[in-house]
Design goal:
The complex is a heterodimer. Chain A is 54% helix and 21% strand. Chain A is of the alpha+beta class. Classes of the chains: A alpha+beta, B alpha+beta.
C-alpha cells in the first residue's frame, strides 16, 4: 500500500534542510558572505564568469640537464687539476660530459674515485681506454625535474604574491607544467612578464680588447661572448656588448633588491650576502676603471664603470628603467632565479565586462528554461505535473546547495549544465507518470497504479541515469577548466534529480492520495 | 483536480521496426555522408585544437576596423584576421592562426598587446600553443571513445551483450552524425563541442536504455511474441515518455540557445541536434539492430530468467 516510512520522511526533510542551508549564502550580499565561516560559502565563480586569467606554463627541462652538465665540466676540470691529472678533449657530447684521462690504470682509478666523490648522483665511469663519461640516469633526472618544479612553483608563488593578486591559484600539472589562475586579472600582460622572467643575473667584465665590429665578423676570443643589450639604441636596434665569459659574481648571492631612485632616474638597489659581498668587493677592487656588465637572462642590463671598490656588498643597477620596470626587476631579483626558463603554452583571460554579460545571460537562460519546463509539466500532467515542478525546484536548490558545499566552481558551461539538468531532471517524473497511466489503463486501481508506477519506473530511472553519469565522469576526467564545471553540474544534477524526482515527488503524491482518496488518476 | 493534456492517443501501434530497412538505409546514407564530409572537408577546428591567438577587445568608442587592421598588419606577425562583432560597433575580434612554436606566438601576442595599448579593454583572450592543441585533440578522442566503451560496459552488466552492442552502435551512429553536422555547417569545433558530443552520447543512451528496459520486461512477459512485434510494442509503450522528455530537454536547451549568449549558442544548438538524433537512433537504430543479433534465442531468455530468479527468490 501507499506508505512512506517515518525515517525516510526524516531523511527527505534533512536533505532538503541541508540544501537550503548550503544554498542560502548565494542569496545574500557580498559583505554578509564574507562574515560566514569557510565551510558555509556561496558558489565560487569561474574565471570565465568573474573575469581573470588562466596561464599554463612549462619548464624547459632540456636546459636543466644542459646546465647541470656545464657545471659538471667545471667540476671535472677543477677536480682533475687538484688531483694533478692530465686529460684531453673535455666536452659535452650526447648529454654526457666526456674526456680522455691520460696515463695508466692507477691514474684512471684515481680519477674515477675523485670524480665520483666530487659529482654525487651522477654515473661516473672511466673505461679501460681512459675515456671518462659522466651522465645522469633516469632517476637522477627525475629528481632534478622534481626539484626544479617545486622551486619554480615556490618562486612563482612569491612573485605573484608580490603583485598583490587576490586569491591566486598556482598548481602543478603533470611532471613539468604549472597552471596559474589569477581571478580579477583580466589583462595578464604584467603577470606574464613577472612570472616569465628567469631572472638569472650574473656580473661579467667587459672585454675591452675586442670591438663589437670585430666580434660580429666572428673574430671573437674564446673567453668572450657577444650579448645583446636590454634596451634599444637610438635607431631602434639592440645595443651589443662584448663580454668576458667568466662569471665574476652571480645573483644567487643577492639577499635583497629594492626599487629606488638615483639622480631622479629609477634604479634597482641590491645587497649581497656576506660571501657575495666579499667576492664583489674583490672584483671591484681589482678592476677599478673597467666596466662591469650586469647580465640578466643573457641580456646586458647595463655596463657601468667601476669608479671605486665597493666593499659594503651593495650597489645599484641602472639601465634606463621606467618606474614599473625597476619595480618588477627588483621583484624578480628578490624572489630568486627560476631553475630553468619557462614557456607559456596557453593563456585564457576574460575581462570583467564579458564575465558580467555571461552571468546575466546564464541567469536569463536558466530562468526561461525553468519557466518553460515548469509550464510544460503542468500542461502535460496537471496536478502531478505541479508536484514534479515542486520537486524540480527542490532539485535546483539541492544542486546549488550541493555545488556550494562541495566548493565547486561555477563556469559558463556549468550554467549550461544546470539548464540541461532542468530539462532532463523531469525525465524521471515523466517515466513515473507514464508508467502510472499505463498501469491504470491495464486495469489497476488508482492507488495500486500509483504504487506500481513508482516501483516499476525506478529501475529504468537508475539504469538511464547511471549511463549519463558515466559520461559526466569522463567529461570531468578529460575536460579542463570550464568543461569540468559542466561535468560537475551535470553529474551532481543527475544525483539530485534522482533524489527529488523519486523521493520528493513520491512523498507529495502519497500525502495527496491519503487526503483525497482519489478514484481516478489525475493524469 | 485538473488533468494533464494527452499529447498522444493511448495505445498507439506504429510499426517502427517493420520500416527498419528504410531507417537503416537512411542512417547508412547519413553516416557515409558524414564520413565523406569529415574526410574531405573536415572539421573547422577552433582555437582549442588548432592553436593560435584569438582576442575579443572593446574600444572606448566605435572601433575603426580598417585603421586597426592597417596597424596590426604592419606588425608582420602573421596573417591577422580582424572583424567587428556585436551591435555596438565597439567590439572587435582579432584572430591569428597557429604558430609553429610557443615562443614566436608569445612574442606576437606581446607586440599586439602593445599596439592595442590601454585604449582597448580585453573582453576575452585565448592563446593556445601548438603543443597544447595536439594534446587536447588526443584527450577529446580518448574521452569520447572511453565514454562509449564505459556506457556499453554498463549496459552489458545490467542487461546483456546484445543490448550493449545495440546501444554502442546507436552511440557511434550519433557521434559520427553529430560530427558530420559540425563539418557540414562549418561550426567551430572546440572543447565545448567535445563536451556537447559527450552530452549527446549521454542523452542518447539515456533514451535507449529506457526502451531497452521495456524490451527486457516484455521479453519476460510475452515469451511467445515474435521479436519484431515485441520491439514495436515496447517502442509504442514508451513513445509518450520519449516525446515528452525530448520536449522538456529541447525547451531548456532552447532557452540557452536564445538567451545564453554567444559563447553557449553553438553548444546549445549542438545539443538540440543531439536530442533529435538521439531520439531517432533509439527508436530506429538501437531497437531494430536487436533483430539482427538474434536476440530471441534461448540463451537470452534463459539468462533473463536466471536474472529474474535471482532478483525475486
Amino acid at each position: 500500500m501507499l506508505y512512506f516510512q517515518k525515517w525516510k520522511i526524516a531523511v527527505v526533510a534533512l536533505v532538503i534542510a541541508a540544501g537550503v542551508v548550503f544554498a542560502t549564502p548565494n542569496l545574500i550580499s557580498r559583505d554578509q558572505q564574507d562574515a560566514l565561516p569557510g565551510w558555509w560559502q556561496p558558489l565560487s565563480l569561474g574565471l570565465d564568469l568573474q573575469g581573470g586569467s588562466h596561464l599554463l606554463l612549462e619548464l624547459n627541462t632540456g636546459e636543466l640537464v644542459k646546465d647541470k652538465l656545464e657545471g659538471v665540466v667545471d667540476v671535472v676540470r677543477g677536480t682533475l687539476r687538484t688531483e694533478k691529472m692530465r686529460y684531453t678533449g673535455l666536452s659535452i657530447q650526447h648529454e654526457a660530459v666526456v674526456a680522455s684521462i691520460l696515463g695508466g690504470e692507477t691514474e684512471r682509478a684515481a680519477a674515477r674515485k675523485a670524480l665520483r666523490n666530487a659529482i654525487p648522483n651522477a654515473d661516473v665511469d672511466v673505461d679501460a681506454d681512459g675515456l671518462l663519461k659522466v651522465s645522469y640516469g633516469e632517476k637522477a633526472r627525475r629528481e632534478m625535474l622534481e626539484g626544479a618544479l617545486s622551486t619554480t612553483l615556490e618562486i612563482i608563488r612569491k612573485r605573484i604574491d608580490e603583485l598583490g593578486t587576490r586569491e591566486p591559484s598556482i598548481q602543478r600539472q603533470g611532471s613539468n607544467r604549472i597552471v596559474v589562475q589569477l581571478p580579477g586579472v583580466s589583462d595578464p600582460k604584467r603577470a606574464r612578464e613577472v612570472i616569465g622572467k628567469t631572472a638569472r643575473m650574473t656580473f661579467h667584465l667587459l672585454d675591452t680588447e675586442t670591438s663589437v665590429e670585430e666580434a660580429m665578423k666572428g673574430r671573437l676570443p674564446p673567453g668572450s661572448m657577444l650579448l645583446e643589450g636590454m634596451d634599444a639604441g637610438p635607431q631602434g636596434q639592440k645595443r651589443l656588448y662584448v663580454v668576458r665569459k667568466k662569471v665574476e659574481v652571480t645573483g644567487e648571492h643577492l639577499v635583497d633588491a629594492q626599487p629606488s631612485f638615483d639622480q631622479g632616474a629609477p634604479v634597482v638597489s641590491f645587497r649581497f650576502d656576506a660571501l657575495g659581498g666579499r667576492i664583489f668587493g674583490k672584483v671591484t677592487q681589482d678592476n677599478v676603471g673597467r666596466s662591469l656588465a650586469i647580465v640578466l637572462d643573457n641580456k646586458v642590463v647595463s655596463a657601468p664603470n667601476i669608479r671605486s671598490a665597493i666593499m659594503q656588498g651593495n650597489g645599484v643597477i641602472t639601465g634606463g628603467f621606467s618606474v614599473q620596470g625597476a619595480n618588477d626587476l627588483a621583484l624578480v631579483l628578490r624572489s630568486g632565479a627560476l631553475p630553468t626558463s619557462i614557456t607559456f603554452l596557453e593563456e585564457r583571460s576574460v575581462g570583467p565586462s564579458l564575465g558580467a554579460d555571461s552571468i546575466r545571460a546564464g541567469m536569463v537562460a536558466s530562468l526561461v528554461g525553468l519557466a518553460l519546463v515548469v509550464g510544460f509539466m503542468v500542461v502535460a500532467y496537471g496536478l502531478f505535473g505541479l508536484f514534479a515542478d515542486v520537486a524540480l525546484i527542490v532539485n535546483m536548490m539541492l544542486l546549488i546547495g550541493g555545488l556550494s558545499a562541495l566548493g565547486a566552481t561555477l563556469t559558463l558551461p556549468g550554467i549550461a549544465g544546470i539548464v540541461l539538468t532542468i530539462g532532463m531532471a523531469v525525465d524521471a517524473n515523466v517515466l513515473i507518470f507514464e508508467r502510472m497511466r499505463e498501469e491504470a489503463r491495464n486495469g489497476r486501481s488508482t492507488l495500486s497504479a500509483i504504487e506500481t508506477g513508482f516501483s516499476r519506473a525506478f529501475s529504468t530511472i537508475l539504469d538511464a541515469n547511471v549511463t549519463t553519469l558515466a559520461a559526466a565522469l569522463l567529461l570531468y576526467h578529460f575536460g579542463s577548466g570550464p568543461v569540468r564545471g559542466f561535468a560537475v553540474t551535470l553529474g551532481l544534477g543527475i544525483l539530485t534529480s534522482m533524489f527529488s524526482a523519486v523521493m520528493v515527488t513520491r512523498l507529495m503524491v502519497i500525502i495527496w492520495a491519503r487526503r483525497v482518496h482519489p478514484s481516478a488518476l489525475p493524469l | 483536480m485538473f488533468r494533464g493534456l494527452k499529447f498522444l492517443p493511448e495505445g498507439t501501434r506504429i510499426d517502427f521496426v517493420g520500416k527498419r530497412l528504410i531507417s537503416i538505409a537512411f542512417s547508412l546514407t547519413l553516416l557515409l555522408g558524414a564520413g565523406a564530409l569529415l574526410l574531405t572537408k573536415g572539421l573547422n577546428y577552433g582555437i582549442d585544437f588548432a592553436g593560435g591567438i584569438q582576442m575579443e577587445v572593446r574600444g572606448q568608442g566605435v572601433v575603426d576596423v580598417a585603421e586597426l587592421r592597417t596597424r596590426l598588419n604592419a606588425l608582420g606577425v602573421g596573417e591577422i584576421g580582424l572583424q567587428g562583432i556585436g551591435n555596438s560597433g565597439r567590439e572587435a575580434m582579432i584572430r591569428i592562426p597557429a604558430f609553429n612554436d610557443e615562443v614566436s606566438q608569445n612574442a606576437a601576442l606581446k607586440v599586439i598587446r602593445e599596439t592595442l595599448g590601454p585604449t582597448f579593454e580585453n573582453r576575452r583572450t585565448e592563446v593556445v600553443g601548438p603543443k597544447v592543441g595536439e594534446e587536447l585533440i588526443l584527450d577529446g578522442i580518448l574521452a569520447v571513445s572511453l565514454a562509449i566503451l564505459a556506457i556499453a560496459g554498463y549496459i552489458w552488466l545490467r542487461f546483456e551483450l546484445h543490448f550493449a552492442l545495440g546501444g554502442m552502435i546507436a552511440l557511434i551512429h550519433d557521434v559520427i552524425a553529430t560530427m558530420g553536422v559540425f563539418s557540414l555547417t562549418g561550426m567551430e569545433f572546440s572543447l565545448t563541442s567535445v563536451a556537447a558530443v559527450l552530452t549527446i552520447a549521454g542523452y542518447s543512451i539515456n533514451d535507449t536504455v529506457v526502451v531497452y528496459d521495456r524490451v527486457r520486461e516484455n521479453l519476460r512477459k510475452y515469451k511467445k511474441m515474435p521479436l519484431a512485434e515485441l520491439l514495436n510494442l515496447s517502442l509504442n509503450e514508451t513513445l509518450s515518455r520519449t516525446i515528452l522528455t525530448s520536449g522538456t530537454t529541447v525547451l531548456s536547451v532552447l532557452a540557452v540557445a536564445v538567451f545564453g549568449g554567444d559563447v553557449l549558442r553553438g553548444f546549445a544548438l549542438a545539443l538540440i541536434w543531439g536530442v533529435v538524433i538521439g531520439t531517432y537512433s533509439s527508436i530506429y537504430i538501437a531497437l531494430p539492430v536487436l533483430i539482427y543479433f538474434n536476440l530471441r534465442n534461448t540463451d537470452v531468455i534463459s539468462d533473463l530468467d536466471e536474472a529474474d530468479a535471482k532478483a525475486r527468490p
